[in-house]
Specification:
This protein has no helices and 5 strands. The protein has strands spanning 9-19, 22-32, 39-49, 60-65, 73-82. A 5-stranded mixed beta barrel has the order 1-2-3-5-4. The chain is globular and about 45 Å long.
Length: 85
């Protein structure tokens, strides 16, 4: 039996839940500028599949790479790490 390849996982914050079964997740990482050495924040936005529609704006979630589900949706919500207050 063939082993499934490891898939990327990202932790981020839900910034939109207006679509059905889809959430928008923003992930932030810190990068060091190659010349000046200053640390900068870089954000990435992902469209993720939320089958049970449990996620709300402000939730901290873990998303995982998956097969293409639509034109822009290639991630799915694995778990909700922390609920928004």
């Amino acid at each position: 039996m063939a082993e499934r390849a490891l898939r990327k996982t990202v932790i981020g914050i839900v910034v939109s839940d207006k679509m059905s079964k889809t959430v928008t997740v923003t992930s932030e990482r810190r990068l060091r500028h190659p010349l000046y050495g200053k640390f900068m924040k870089q954000r990435s936005k992902f469209m993720a599949h939320d089958e049970k529609e449990e996620c709300r704006i402000g939730d901290k979630v873990r998303i995982q790479e998956t097969r293409p589900l639509s034109k822009r949706k290639r991630w799915r919500v694995v778990e909700i790490i922390e609920k928004a207050r």
